[in-house]
Write a structure and sequence with these properties.
Helix 4 runs parallel beside helix 6 and helix 8 packs across helix 12. The protein has one domain: Rossmann fold (3-Layer(aba) Sandwich), CATH 3.40.50. The two termini are 36 Å apart. It is built from 14 helices and twelve strands. Helix content is 37%, strand content 15%. A hairpin with a 2-residue loop joins strand 6 and strand 7. By secondary structure, it is α/β, with parallel strands linked by helices. The structure holds sulfoquinovose-uridine-C1,5'-diphosphate (USQ). The site of sulfoquinovose-uridine-C1,5'-diphosphate has 21 residues, from helix 8 and strand 10.
Length: 421
């Protein structure tokens, strides 16, 4: 199948390209490479060194004997979106090209606006371009489990049956997102659902849990590494916990640590997206997949990380910083996830096994973690309208702000995108 991946340079986008190529699909991708700049903006970098995109293409040629076509550009530019779709005429688009960090969206008003404008605009441009150029193309849109929040009832896959004042209907399940970023995904979901209805498009909205891991079966060589973020803004819970243990810093379940989220290994997230691509929605169908393997509390993840660290000779401690977010620290959590198993999805990666692998990979690059240890502890608070003073305080600016990064001091020039290690 001919697949276009938007956001092909990202943590999920790159391994997805490798996975689809290895399964015989024809893959092209686009990206504006802005995540690399934004991670540098908060003073961090990927723990695993990643190649420039031309070098990634070269590695794919050399190691997999395949070609991946690439368009550098921005979904915010309507003409660019049209041109890529005209040229590629994909049968499926996996749309990952969005600002994907909740803490980044909470830095200040500019980051909040940037996140929502970019994410909603990019999705609308794609929807219009699909309507005009490839109306039969299946859109697989990356959403988030965080759209639902933590309601005190079970969470269905997108829709539920409700009776109210003697009448009944099947309605979208209420969304109660927990950051400006997560709200941007809620708005996207509404737009994709509406476009599907009025233009008879095909769409799958993937409510993705938190991804963890460094490897998929296709990542067999460091030249094929995907990025691995561990700073407080871009790193996600389990990946951060490993980095903290390797650095000798305490593992940090925030607040009471009873927050529960759905988690999924990188490899299994790729399997899920492939299954969605290979089993397209029908014309006029908007379907929702809850995509995660298991729900864990962050306390549980901290304890398992500590245990795996111990087995590797690392003595890790656990500390509970005050929760920088406004979120329930103790709550019911039972999302349903039946749609993907019905398409043949099977979990392949167990938590401890994935953790051992992350430790193995990340320990080899400990000096890259050491260089950025000052950006690991939480600094962005949900309660504060302007977090720039905290971000300034923890990393002394060494360079003037760049046009891409006006709000926060630019990172020291240790960034891998500027001088690959
Ligand atoms: N958390 C800690 N300690 C940490 C980091 C996080 O306790 O050091 C907690 C957070 O407070 C939160 C939970 O772990 O309760 C998850 O936080 P996270 O940073 O791992 O993930 P989140 O901000 O929710 O966002 C990530 C991705 C996002 C994706 C989302 C899926 O960055 O792109 O949409 O996971 S989900 O969480 O299901 O919404």
């Amino acid at each position: 199948m001919k697949v276009l991946i938007t956001g092909i340079d990202g943590y999920s986008g790159w391994p997805l390209a490798l996975h689809l190529l290895s399964r015989g699909h024809d893959v092209a991708g686009l990206d504006n490479l802005v995540t690399r700049k934004r991670v540098a903006e908060v003073g961090s970098w990927s723990a695993l060194p990643i190649q420039s995109f031309p070098k990634r293409q070269e590695a794919v040629r050399r190691l997999l004997g395949k070609e991946v076509r690439f368009y550098k550009g921005d979904l915010g530019k309507w003409e660019f979106v049209r041109e890529v779709l005209e040229k590629e005429r994909p049968e499926a688009i996996v749309h990952l090209a969005e600002q994907r960090s909740a803490p980044y969206s909470m830095i200040d008003v500019h980051h909040a606006v940037q996140t929502q404008v970019e994410n909603v605009t990019g999705t609308l441009h794609l929807l219009y371009a699909i309507r005009e150029i490839v109306p039969d193309c299946h859109l697989v849109k990356m959403g988030t489990m965080g759209e639902y929040g933590t309601p005190n009832v079970d969470i269905p896959e997108g829709f539920f049956d409700i009776e109210y004042r003697g009448r009944s209907d099947r309605l979208p399940f209420p969304r109660q997102a927990g950051s400006w970023y997560h709200w941007s995904k809620v708005f996207d979901s509404g737009d994709v659902m509406f476009a599907t209805k009025i233009w008879n498009l095909r769409s799958t909205d993937v409510m993705q849990g938190v991804i963890y891991g460094t490897r998929t079966p296709e990542i067999t060589d460091p030249a094929l590494f995907t990025r691995f973020d561990f700073d407080e803004t871009w790193g996600t819970a389990l990946n951060r916990f490993v980095a903290e243990a390797v650095l000798g810093l305490p593992i940090t379940p925030y607040g009471q640590g009873h927050q529960i989220r759905g988690f999924i290994a990188l490899e299994d997230s790729m399997q899920s997206l492939r299954l969605a691509v290979e089993h397209p929605a029908q014309p006029g169908e908007y379907r929702v997949f809850n995509q995660f393997d298991a729900a864990y509390s962050v306390n549980h993840l901290a304890e398992v990380t500590q245990k795996v660290a111990e087995a590797q000779g690392i003595h890790a401690t656990i500390e509970h910083p005050p929760d920088p977010r406004v979120e329930a620290e103790q709550h019911h959590y039972n999302p349903i996830h039946d749609h993907l198993p019905a398409l043949g999805y099977r979990r392949t990666r167990e938590l401890e096994e994935a953790l051992q692998e992350i430790f193995r990979d990340v320990r080899k690059y400990k000096r890259r973690l050491e260089a950025k240890r000052h950006v690991v502890m939480p600094a962005v608070s949900w309660r504060t309208g302007d977090n720039r003073p905290q971000l300034h305080a923890r990393s002394a600016p060494t360079a003037p702000p760049t046009p891409e990064a006006p709000a926060v001091p630019a990172a020291p020039s240790l960034d891998p995108t500027r001088s690959p290690a």
